[in-house]
Amino acid sequence: MSEEKIIKIDMGEQISNDGGNRPVLCLGIESSCDETSAAIVDSNRNILAHIIYSQIPEHQKYGGVVPELAARAHILAIDDVIRQTLANAGKTIDDIDVIAATAGPGLIGGVLVGWMAATGIAQATNKPLVAVNHLEGHALVPRLRATAANGTGGDVKVEFPYLLMLASGGHCQILLVRGVGQYELIGQTLDDSAGEAYDKVAKMLGLGYPGGPIVDARAQNGNPHALQFPRPLCDKAGCDFSFSGIKTAARTFLDRTTGPLTDEYINDFCASFQASVVDCIINRLTHALADVRVHDAAPRTLVVAGGVAKNSAIRTAMEALAQQHGMLFAAPPMNLCTDNGAMIAWAGLENFNIGRVVREPIAPRPRWPLTEL
Ligand code: KG4
Ligand code: ZN
User: Fold this and answer.
1) pLDDT digit string (tens) for 273-325?
2) Does 308 share its domain with 349?
3) What's the rounded Cα separation, in Å, for the pair 346 and 342?
4) From ligand 1's centre to the CA of 294, what distance in Å?
5) Is the domain of 116 the same as that of 207?
6) Which atom of ligand 1 is nearest to the CA of 138?
7) 0.85 cut: is pTM over it?
């Protein structure tokens, strides 16, 4: 895309490409894993339309996402998802100001599908294009929509800087979010992500995919003290995580169990596993809040995002931690925790607002750490 096709805007201004005060509309596309999703979001934080086509049923029989099947399903779905999103918003492509799509990290076959669709639309319509880092979508979406408490509090507008627990299927990081594009890594997992641990434990128990929501539901009827799972790294300084020991403990408990797994045992197992994940998260966040970088930045809000942010035990524990530290707590609504197009549209708008648009063709990236933005 040539330089003159890029709309230049001043930072902090009401962005508009017609000189007026009309909010800017962004079409966001997400296709990095097993959701084909598109949304139209405006610069006044309105979600005009949002479609999430989940491929979960197609991957369930394999116990996890099969990248080739996912890429193919994205190809089959993407046009309809985009067309229907525009129709639901009552808009045509001419009404859209900015096109944004996930350009990584993720399963590259899927990322390519969404990214090429976005590139094609942007080139054909002469509109600015934003390459969104998927993790940045998770990191910024609480600024589009978040509730103050565990699903019960009112809407909050999350201001920079904030301390973010980003927990998804692929990542587990504590980040100091100073601004758009300004992410300081405070801690991260040394092995598995929290979501992976949930998914693997669910698989061991034969509970199906994705494991997080199933283990979460089972845990609500179980005894968190029934089994003593380890709390890896919690006796150590720092803010890093390790979940592989918890997974090994799960395997060992199961190997020792003879006879069929009763519902009661599975519920206790899930509750005990979840208690250890929650304890690790709170321990590491407590260290993060004492970290000199975080302390000096004095974030006012503790935020959780990513698919695992749907977990009510994690939300409740983080809310209590925030209260102890005199901070606000914020979490996106459930449908904006797992992968979705609205978070990409919003991150697209936030990037567009500071002039971060694609100026020459770029290759999507299967790996793309937030700290490389
Ligand atoms: O953010 P996401 O949709 O995809 C990635 O970017 O990886 O996160 C998916 C992850 C899966 O591992 C899923 O099991 C987990 O989020 N998850 C949960 C819950 N709901 C989804 N984990 C724990 N509790 C939940 N309620
Ligand atoms: Zn994600």
Assistant:
1) 999 999 999 999 999 999 999 999 999 999 999 999 999 999 999 999 999 99
2) no
3) 6
4) 26
5) no
6) 1
7) yes
